[in-house]
Amino acid sequence: MTPITDKELAQFRRFIFEAAGITMSEQKKALVEGRLGKRLTLHGLESFGQYFNLLSSGEHPDEVQVAVDLLTTNETYFFREIKHFEFLRAQALAARTRAQPFRVWSAASSSGEEAYSIAMVLADCMESTPWEVLGTDISTQVLKGAARALYTMERARHIPPDYLRRFCLKGSGEHQGKLLIERNLRNRVLFRYVNLNVPLPNMGQFDVIFLRNVMIYFSDDTKREVVARVISSMKPGGFFCVGHSESLNNISNAVESVAPSIYRKAG
């Protein structure tokens, strides 16, 4: 297998931009080689150009999804950026007297830690008020892992101790050093494939949407398009949480800032 060339890297940068709206820098050559190299070996290919041609042929849609999975997967952990979950708790407590479900969307849920963190908060404070959590991602591989709900303890270091006892099962034997989200909570979270870079399916309206630590990979034009789609799925007065290093300034006029990295839709 020959090392990836600048021309081949440019091809994969265009590939992932067209598939997921992600702007990959020229400094990601080692990442592309490391993540896709095994696929070349599997298919008996000698160059990344040959692999790109395989993806572009239209004859291997499953392999295209594998490549997207490998190039978009990012590590996450439970209760990342805790301020957002404190804010979520306050909003959920304020909604306990209403009859309609309190709905939260984890719009780039990756391997599921964010969606299950949301579910723990809602299960803890919503009492008899109905609630729903939807987790979506462009990677079918990480969605399978999210539905399995089995994680290393390292990713659980920020779960509050009470939540660990109530919502997590400690692994033993072959699962030593891991935890499993308990069945009742696991069954309350729905995961599905959604590509934010194309028109969204009808998923209903949400009270709170988390789209965090993803837009840093988008161009400004892609951010505007994605945010407009996501906001269309927010209830009037709903809240939009982005990563602490992200901002919607000059991206959308449909929401206003109410706290660092938290925005509210008018209405």
3D architecture notes:
The protein is an alpha/beta fold and about 270 residues long. It has 2 domains: about 5-70, Orthogonal Bundle (Chemotaxis Receptor Methyltransferase Cher, domain 1), CATH 1.10.155.10; about 80-265, Rossmann fold, CATH 3.40.50.150. Helix content is about 40%, strand content about 20%. The chain is built from 10 helices and 10 strands. The chain has helices at about 5-20, 30-40, 50-55, 60-70, 80-95, 115-125, 140-150, 160-165, 185, 220-230, and strands spanning about 100-105, 130-135, 150, 170, 180, 190-195, 205-210, 235-240, 255-260, 260-265. Helix 6 (about 115-125) links the parallel strand 1 (about 100-105) and strand 2 (about 130-135). Helix 5 runs parallel beside helix 6 (about 115-125). The radius of gyration is 20 Å and the shape is globular. It starts with 5 loop residues before the first helix and ends with a strand. The model has no long low-confidence stretch (mean pLDDT about 95).
